[in-house]
Write a structure and sequence with these properties.
There is one protein chain. By secondary structure, the protein is of the alpha/beta class. The chain is 36% helix and 10% strand. It contains 13 helices and eight strands. The relative contact order is 0.16.
């Protein structure tokens, strides 16, 4: 569930429409998703999500700096390629142009895809997570075949974390993945400040969310059929390390505790438990230096660096995300 400031605005409009009139008949199911795009045009590093979103809109198919070098071979220090999985209505570049240069400089073989594009649509991360999970599975196979590695580490933000966990837990990815890290993961879904709960209460509300904001967003609502099935019987599977990194000030996943995995083997980190003055939110997390270092520590727990705790105001980056997403 990344961007979707635009999606949230659409949902607000939808709620007003539902209060005034009943919904029209539900549209037919979307066709099968296309194959994931592998962006190959390196873009520059970015320091904010708004700047990254804006650059991605002006330069389609840009890759996060340092990613998708298929000549890279993993080192003894970092034997597993890292695959970065973006969130809803986003792209690899928009999500990861802040941390990818750091990971590349640290010596990782680094890869990112653009998944979840409906045929004929511009945006990524809007198809069903079942379709997107298969796209990720195919991409991981490509990365492993090219690099010669046995396994990868996955880092996903928002929807990307859930797509990655669906791949690991339900598509056989556990045999190919050493570690899964979910940043602002909608593990048990969100209610968008109660908005989706209100919309879902109307007949045809969930279907309308799918029409206006994409199937993936509807699947990320607290209590959705998709999340219920994914978490049934335990939200992890043996053989994979699981870590979530969340924030108390998440603008999308409420309650914020829904980010955490409930299986005892998982590690759940809340930024403010370690740095109370960092009030970063959902959209800013991949660009928050404290969160970035937590991600790097998770990938390399034998060489942990304690992040510098600095004040981050509530709502940081939100105006830039709104402007970049809508203009």
């Amino acid at each position: 569930m990344t961007t979707t400031i635009r999606g949230l605005l659409l949902l607000l409009l939808l709620l007003l429409l539902l209060l005034c009139a009943s919904m029209a008949p539900v549209l037919a199911a979307a066709p099968a998703a296309q194959a994931a795009e592998v962006p190959m045009i390196p873009g520059p590093p970015q320091r904010t999500p708004g700047a990254a979103i804006s650059y991605a809109k002006q330069h389609p198919h840009s890759a996060p700096p340092g990613t998708n070098d298929f000549s890279c071979r993993p080192s003894a220090a970092h034997p597993r390629p890292v695959v970065l999985v973006h969130g809803s209505d986003g792209s690899g570049y928009a999500n990861w142009a802040g941390i990818s240069p750091q990971l590349k400089a640290a010596g990782y073989c680094l890869f990112a895809l653009n998944y979840g594009q409906k045929p004929g649509a511009e945006h990524y991360g809007i198809e069903t997570m079942v379709a997107s999970g298969q796209e990720l599975a195919d991409f991981v196979d490509q990365v492993l075949a090219t690099t010669g590695a046995d396994k990868v580490d996955l880092v996903g933000h928002s929807q990307g974390a859930t797509v990655a966990r669906y791949y690991v837990n339900r598509l056989g990815g556990a045999a190919r993945v050493h570690q899964w890290t979910g940043v602002a993961s909608p593990t048990y879904g969100g209610n968008f400040f109660g908005l989706t709960t209100a919309v879902s209460a109307f007949a045809g509300g969930v279907e309308a969310i799918e029409i206006l904001a994409g199937a993936a967003l509807a699947e990320q609502i607290e209590g959705s059929d998709f999340l219920t099935a994914l978490n049934a019987g335990g939200d992890t599977v043996p053989g994979v390390r699981y870590t979530t990194i969340g924030t108390r000030y998440d603008e999308v996943v409420q309650p914020y505790t829904n980010v955490a995995l409930r299986d005892p083997e998982a590690t759940n980190i809340v930024v403010q438990d370690l740095c109370p003055i960092d009030q970063t939110g959902h959209f800013n997390m991949p660009y928050d230096p404290y969160t970035q270092q937590l991600i790097m520590n998770t990938l390399d727990p034998e060489h942990v660096v304690v992040p510098r705790c600095t004040f981050v105001p509530l709502g940081t980056a939100i105006p830039g995300v709104i402007i970049a997403s809508n203009f």
